[in-house]
Amino acid sequence: MASLGERALDWARSHPTVTRSAAAVVAGLLVYLSFPPRTLWFLAPVGIAVLTLAVRGTSRARGGFGVGFVGGMAFFLPLLPWTGIYVGPVPWIALSVACSVYVGLFGLLTRWVATLPGWPVWVAAVWSLTEWGRASFPFGGFPWGKLAFGQADGWYLPFAMIGGAPLVSFAVALTGTGLAALILRTLRRLRGVGADSSEVAAVTSNSPRWGASRLTSWNRIVAAAMLVAIVPVTGVILRTALPGPEDGNRPITVAAIQGSVPRLGLDFNAQRRAVLDNHVKRTEELARDIAAGRAKQPDVVIWPENSSDIDPLRNADAAQEISQASKDVKAPILVGAVLVNDDRTTTNSVIVWNGDAGPGERHDKKIIQPFGEYLPFRDFFRHFSEYADRAGYFVPGHGNGVVHVQPAGGGAPVTIGVATCYEVAFDRAFEQSVRAGAQLLTVPSNNATFGRSEMTYQQLAMSRVRAVEHGRAVVVSVTTGVSAMITADGTIQQQTPQFEPAALVATLPLRDNTTLATRLGPAPEVGLCILAAAATVAGITRRRNTHPVEQTGRDVD
After folding, report:
1. Which of 165, 163, 168, 171 is nearest to 121 (CA)?
2. Which residues contact 313 (CB under 8 A, 6 or more apart)?
3. Residue 548 and which of 92, 429, 534, 537 are 20 to 30 A apart at CA?
4. Catalytic residue positions?
5. What distance in Å separates the CA atoms of residue 174 and residue 158, rounded to the nearest whole number?
6. Contact present, 431 and 453 (Cβ < 8 Å)
7. Beta partners for 311?
8. Alpha helix stretches (DSSP H) within 292-363
9. To 10 degrees, what angle do helices 455-470 and 160-194 make?
10. CA 330 – CA 278 distance, rounded (Å)
11. Calpha distance 35→41 (Å, rounded)
12. What is the 3-state secondary structure of 461-500?
């Protein structure tokens, strides 16, 4: 009588579509669980391995796409619910579907490139290609959910200093595809041993060909095992090359203010004066702590995005309040402000504000969020959601992503790179800042519209990846938290709780030297995409040559 395990295997073989779809769901959930606030980073390569096994060998192209799409939905649906907290499930589901299409493309392309020798490398490159596509199209792309952003606590993080976030993602994917190859090779080897009979043994025991085949089989198993081990271990070795927390040219003292907001949700800024007052109040409390010797005197103070949604360039009261706070704390403040333009559009800006001297240089957010800060095809989308008209009318800024600040303690001006909230997800934001001379990086953000979701922890992990990628300390200042001081090795030196007014003060090193990732810029990702494209062409050509197509247009395989 067949055992329960044998019956389950028989059922799985007779229902391949259900089996592959279930495996894809497991894979997507494993990748999701690797992301913050959890520290289960090691589940990501396991998830990629399961997904690779699920899509590899599907009989038709649409099958590979479908299985990949299911895996994508299992990943993005639990990852992105914060996008619909206050606007309903439609945007959340629509965004998850759009992102899952790219995982479907991964399944489709994997079906082709997995026929090539050395396929784990080509499949991992295909993952890189689909991540690039998702980060680029449509509406400027949506990089959230890159494998790299789940690795802030993991062994793979040091790869960021060589090839940025794309190389981290590739390293994770390569471990996963290598693990898939190891599983396949091992199962085939076990099947060969288990299927042995007296007749087979009599024939094969004296067969040189069988012995050579067995040796080749073991070589492939060992090669796959080495691939699975070497990639993460290399990351561990690279960690020794990361800069120390105090390594740099000279230190400055930085304060990050978290003023909090009157209430969460889309209407958080209905009491704009209260939001501004909260940040002024917490800054003045810090000033009193400095005067009493309980806190260090900062060289610069950083406020979050939207800390002044009252345009201080047009409103004298707001300008006076900010100027007074700067004088009280005896340091310039980087103020996150919403500025109203002459055509009634708005700009999301960070302004250097120095006491009575008032506003100086500013960074206008260049990568603005579609369906939030602006709405593409507004007339069309208002038919689907009553929130369409609540989307902003922001316009992107220009510039090189840096502002220059004269430290309160004296010395040469400091060049600070700014990536406002959503910008930190994009590789090009801080890359341009550091190329423009940024010695310190900051991520001012406003997460009040995302409630108590995992979003803020996902974004914090991105800042940690960027710190390693560019070898810079990063100051994260958030209206509702989590604000943090991050050193150049990706370590969180200090952080705040959520939804509480707070101030962080830390002495951080300025750095002028650049990492290989900064110098190479997008080149590693471009190389991986070219590799994936070439492998896809080779895989399609190989498949057509070895699997002729019948007149019906269906694959014989």
Report:
1. 171
2. 319, 337, 339, 351, 359
3. 534
4. 305, 365, 421
5. 16
6. no
7. none
8. 316-329
9. 110
10. 18
11. 7
12. HHHHHHHHHHCCCEEEEECCCCCEEECCCCCEEEECCCCC
Residue-wise pLDDT tens digits, 463-508 = 999 999 999 999 999 999 899 999 999 999 999 999 999 999 999 9
Q: What amino acid occupies position 339?
A: L
Q: Compute how many other C-beta atoms are within 10 angstroms of the C-beta atom of residue 525.
A: 23
How many Å apart are CA 462 and CA 482, to the nearest integer? 13
Q: Give the span between the Cα atoms of 122 and 201, in whole angstroms.
A: 37
- Range 275-313 burial, b when 16+ CB lie within 10 A, else e: bbebbbebbebbbeebeeeebebbbbbbbbbbbbbbbbe
Question: Residue 32: which of 93, 96, 86, 91 has the closest Cα?
Answer: 96
Cis peptide before 37 (omega within 30 of 0): yes
Q: How confident is the model at residue 366 (pLDDT cuts 50, 70, 90)?
A: very high
* Neighbouring C-alpha atoms within 13 Å toward the C-beta of 27: 29
Check: CB of residue 277 under 8 Å from CB of residue 261: no
What is d(CA 38, CA 111) in angstroms, rounded to the nearest whole number? 32
State the Cα–Cα distance between residues 31 and 127, nearest whole angstrom: 13
Does residue 330 contact residue 289 with C-beta atoms inside 8 Å? no
The pLDDT tens digits for 35-84 are 999 999 999 999 999 999 999 877 788 899 999 999 999 999 999 999 98
Residue type, 148: A
The residue behind tokens 């085939």 is 188
- Closest by CA to 169, choosing from 136, 236, 124, is 124
Three-state secondary structure string covering 366-386: CCCCECCCECCCHHHHCCCCC
For the record, the structure tokens of 288 come out as 């009193």
Q: Is 97 helix (H, G, I), strand (E, B) or coil?
A: helix
Type of residue numbered 555:
D
Question: What residues form DSSP beta bridges with 340?
Answer: 346
Rounded to an integer, what distance in angstroms lies between the CA atom of residue 169 and that of residue 220?
Answer: 24
Whole-structure pTM value: 0.91
Instruction: Say how many C-beta atoms besides its own lie within 10 A of residue 116's C-beta.
Output: 16
